[in-house]
């Protein structure tokens, strides 16, 4: 498909038609003053106690490259939907606005803006669909990964989910989001190439099945791929296969090859890991770790860990990259101010708090999160402000943080969660207070709406 010299993911046509429809209407009616839109969630998905922000870097990179290619403009002209003034406007369109946002890896809660766009109204409106698309998904997956981290402290966690992700971009971004949340790495090779995320891989059952003898399969694989060697032992009988690993390990060791781990991908993982651990230990392979996978999520991993299973790490696939139990995060992007005047939506169950806002976070003496206050930007509250300048007049304020820095922030955020938010089996509550100044502005906007309709 020819959309010009760009990747499909960079196209501004990855949007809903009504954004372009409104753009033309705004331009025709002269509604081009500065607007502020904020992105937030109204409520947490069932079973969630918090969310983790991710995807900001991809959003900013998309804004930096925002432009319509000649091929895209030609398509819009052929569609017959838009007038010449609109097409000419799009030909020169670039992002010239401001971005304020919570840094990636930050924990957030309902009614808290995690990103604000301030730009001319037609431009700010156009951005909605793709920005939600980019931030919603990675935040959803980072949260899922964070929950797995809470369920398995001290364990090695690897993203195994690319093949079940809903598309190539989703699979790739899931690798990034889970790494932000603290996963050790991913099985997705391109994620290592793009971002340096450690890449892990073992072997499939098909490799074992292609050989007549399981121990021959193990040895041939070990000699072909001796580094970080992990052998898959549940193609037939994992306990019997563990005995074969014990028999093979000294032979490999004489040639400088070390079996690092065995992987079990099915069955009763608690019982099997105990049996395999016993076989390995009795056979002098105490340093060989047990890694498991197969339909795991944070709840099943929590149960395995609490059972005391001798498992060193987990591969998490489908449940992670689809956020299987809660596959969507209802992030919204709403107009909060236009031409210096606060705006507010009052639809039933979808009301918004008006104006440009900030979130202040307080910590208890032990460093745990104690409560957030949402108020107007500039209405200073106790605590640390969470939204920071990211772009001004279309330019980054500072270079993007490294993935290592983002991971460190996420780790600190998870470490600071109070006990009520750490249990992955029960949703906990966290206090988010709406400040008096914001409530007063809301009442003022309501009076204005009542007067003018």
TrEMBL record:
Top-level EC class as recorded in UniProt: ligase
Reaction catalysed by this enzyme: 5-phospho-alpha-D-ribose 1-diphosphate + nicotinate + ATP + H2O = nicotinate beta-D-ribonucleotide + ADP + phosphate + diphosphate
Domain Nicotinate/nicotinamide phosphoribosyltransferase: 157-337
Keywords assigned: Glycosyltransferase, Ligase, Phosphoprotein, Pyridine nucleotide biosynthesis, Transferase
Start and end residues of each Nicotinate phosphoribosyltransferase N-terminal domain: 13-135
Domain Nicotinate phosphoribosyltransferase C-terminal: 384-441
Keyword Hydrolase in annotation: no
UniProt family annotation: Belongs to the NAPRTase family.
Name of the featured protein: Nicotinate phosphoribosyltransferase
Gene name of the record: pncB2
């Amino acid at each position: 498909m020819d959309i010009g010299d760009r990747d499909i993911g960079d196209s501004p046509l990855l949007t809903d038609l009504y954004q372009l429809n409104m753009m033309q209407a705004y331009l025709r009616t002269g509604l081009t003053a500065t607007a502020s839109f904020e992105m937030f969630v109204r409520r947490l998905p069932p079973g969630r106690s918090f969310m983790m922000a991710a995807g900001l870097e991809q959003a900013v990179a998309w804004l930096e490259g925002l432009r319509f290619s000649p091929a895209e403009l030609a398509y819009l002209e052929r569609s017959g939907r838009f007038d010449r003034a609109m097409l000419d406007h799009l030909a020169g369109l670039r992002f010239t606005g401001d971005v304020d946002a919570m840094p990636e890896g930050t924990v957030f809660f309902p009614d808290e803006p995690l990103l604000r766009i301030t730009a001319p109204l037609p431009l700010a409106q156009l951005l909605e669909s793709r920005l939600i698309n980019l931030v919603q998904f990675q935040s959803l997956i980072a949260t899922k990964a964070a929950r797995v981290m809470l369920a398995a402290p001290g364990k090695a966690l690897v993203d195994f989910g690319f093949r079940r992700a809903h598309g190539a971009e989703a699979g790739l971004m899931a690798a990034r989001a889970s790494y932000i949340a603290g996963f050790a790495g991913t099985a997705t090779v391109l994620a290592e190439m793009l971002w340096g995320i450690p890449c892990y891989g073992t072997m499939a059952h098909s490799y074992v099945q292609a050989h007549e003898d399981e121990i021959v399969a193990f040895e041939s694989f070990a000699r072909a791929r001796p580094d970080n060697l992990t052998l898959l032992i549940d193609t037939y009988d994992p306990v019997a296969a563990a005995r074969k690993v014990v028999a093979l390990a000294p032979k490999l060791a004489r040639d400088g090859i070390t079996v690092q781990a065995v992987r079990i991908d099915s069955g009763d993982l608690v019982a099997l890991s105990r049996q395999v651990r016993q076989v390995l230990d009795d056979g002098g392979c105490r340093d060989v770790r047990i890694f498991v996978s197969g339909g795991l999520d944070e709840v099943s991993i929590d149960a395995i860990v609490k059972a005391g299973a001798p498992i060193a790490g987990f591969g998490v696939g489908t449940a992670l990259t689809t956020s299987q139990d809660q596959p969507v995060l209802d992030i919204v992007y709403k107009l909060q101010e236009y031409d210096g005047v606060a705006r507010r939506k009052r639809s039933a169950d979808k009301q918004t708090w008006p104006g440009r806002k900030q979130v202040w976070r307080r910590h208890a003496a032990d460093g745990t999160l104690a409560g957030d206050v949402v108020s107007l930007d500039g209405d200073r509250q106790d605590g640390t402000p969470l939204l920071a300048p990211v772009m001004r007049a279309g330019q980054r304020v500072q270079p993007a943080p490294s993935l290592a820095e983002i991971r460190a922030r996420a780790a600190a955020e998870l470490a600071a969660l109070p006990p009520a938010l750490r249990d992955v089996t029960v949703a906990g509550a966290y206090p988010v207070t709406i400040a008096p100044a914001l409530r007063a502005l809301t009442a003022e906007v309501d009076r204005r709406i009542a007067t003018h309709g």
